[in-house]
Amino acid sequence: MITVENLSKRYGSTTAVSDVSFTVEPGSITGFLGPNGAGKSTTLRMLTGLTPPSAGRATIAGKKYADLPNPGRVVGVMLDAAAQHPGRTGRETLLLNAALLGVPSSRADEMLEAVGLTPAAKRRVGQYSLGMRQRLGIAAALLGDPAALILDEPANGMDPEGIRWMRGLLQDFASRGGTVILSSHLLGEVQATVDRLVVIGGGRIVANGSLEELLAGSGTLVRGLDPVGLNQALTAAGLALEPLFDGALRVDATAEQVGRAAAAAGQVLLELRESDGAGLEELFFQLTSPTAAAA
Amino acid sequence: MAITEITSPVAAAAPGKHRAAVATSLPPARGQSFLKLVIIELRKSVNTRSGQVLILGILALALAALTWELTHLGDGKQAFDGYLGAASTGVMLLLPVIGVMAMTSEWTQRTALTTFTLSPRRIRVQLAKFVSAIVLSVVVLSVTVVLAIAGTALGGSLSGDGASYAGFGGALAGAYLTTALNVVMGAAFGAVIAQTAVAILVFFVAPTAWALAGPALFKSNADWLDVFGAFGRIAERNLNGMMPETLTAIGVWIVLPTIVGLWASSRREVK
């Protein structure tokens, strides 16, 4: 649905984005991760026709963004929720977009209802909190009932309720066949929301695959009654491990291997589970550290 | 860790399944006609607090000027073009500011991000802004004209000498032409200088500075770039045989900034 092929962008002698290619399929939510300055926003801007690429192409439903006669009806974009005129009311902002998209004004009221902004609809956007502006931005992106969503930091500034609401909204959108690509720095939230990951570092793609596959092998988390003894027992069994700050150990092995090694040494276990929390963050740093980028 | 590549994509959750119908089914997606773009731009100029304040300010100035005229009635018949001149002071000063802001506020308020995402073909949008600025100026001026007519009539009955509408057509034509030219020049400056405050400042300072300093520096050659002179001649609909000077002034002060501004805004990075 969204296809990026060999996209590059050079500013003078600096290459911001180099030969980036990936595809986002319908019915999936793809997380687009990368450190600041890695080229995420530049890639998204090339995708939405705001920045002309130096090379390569990006298409949505087979067409370049600028060739879509009314792009908001095909893909809803929210790149910066703070980029709204503070002197306009929330409702008027949506009504304006609705008129441009060719949808009835009742749709604007529906969207205000859906994002929970109806009480604040008649207030000026300048008086909105950051979370309210984000909600308005989402409402604007969904206004044209698009088949795809491109969101840059959608959960920025939202409280936990807002974040959970957003997750539900996006998963519902994808389950009905929609395509979502979102970039975010909230790795925990990304892990809870997305099906696939595209990671960009130093202007290049460093990972592209399903969340499960990329995180597989991130190991097992184990906590024992006697942390030092457990550490020794597992090391003696030849398992590679890494102590975590709270006394637990992350082991590059299956739960069964850890269990057997601990049992063989008579170590009592308090916790034994798949290590997922540390997984994405660890993966992110492994992929985007300067040495990895050079590899 | 080696780069991980997936060769076969994960199967879509619901391949080929259409999105569920929305509560109200939407009309089919159509392109954005130029007329629609102009209407949207008109809405944008008046649905913000700053736009509303400016327009009300213009009308308030007109009312204040007319009140002054009515409280300082001159002798003889009350002349319409005098009342119109007084009432349109605000128009001449502030309407071009609306023209400037139509072009610059997208960049200073950063709404360019939304505007150019929803309408990626920027030149059309910018041209629609020019047209909407002209339409808005015509509407505001018309309201001012009505107020001036009322003022003239009132003044005529108050002074007891009656009102004179001599040169009505000429005064109107002059007013509409001058206003439209000023607004277009404002918009042209706004197209080139994408910062509201700087654009407004340059708009007020530059042509005036030239009008003051030009003749001293360049003698009669200054006429070639004297844009206010050009406006005056166009408003009088009498070029005094100065067609080339008039065209050059318009070309340099309006056409050139417009072209440069349209080109620059098409390529400007939207942050």
Question: Nutshell version of this structure?
Answer:
The complex is a heterodimer of chains A (about 300) and B (about 270). Chain A has about 300 residues and is an alpha/beta fold. Helices cover about 35% and strands about 25% of the residues of chain A.
Architecture overview:
The complex is a heterodimer of chains A (295) and B (271). Chain A is of the alpha/beta class. Chain A folds into two domains: 2-209, Rossmann fold (3-Layer(aba) Sandwich); 220-275, Alpha-Beta Plaits (2-Layer Sandwich). Chain A has eleven helices and 14 strands. In chain A, the strands form three sheets. A six-stranded mixed β-sheet of chain A has the order 6-7-8-3-9-10, sandwiched between helices. A four-stranded antiparallel β-sheet of chain A has the order 2-1-4-5, with helices on one face. In chain A, strand 9 (196-201) and strand 10 (204-210) form a beta hairpin. In chain A, helix 2 packs across helix 3 (105-115) and helix 3 (105-115) crosses helix 4 (130-142). Chain A is globular and about 70 Å long. The model of chain A has no long low-confidence stretch (mean pLDDT 88). Chain B is mainly α. Chain B has one domain (34-266). Chain B has ten helices and three strands. Chain B has a two-stranded parallel ribbon with strand order 2-3. In chain B, helix 7 (168-192) packs parallel to helix 10 (243-267) and helix 9 packs across helix 10 (243-267). The radius of gyration of chain B is 25 Å and the shape is globular. Chain B starts with a strand and ends with a helix. Classes of the chains: A alpha/beta (295), B mainly alpha (271). Chains A and B meet through helix 2, helix 3, strand 10 and helix 10 of A and strand 1, helix 1, helix 2 and helix 5 of B.
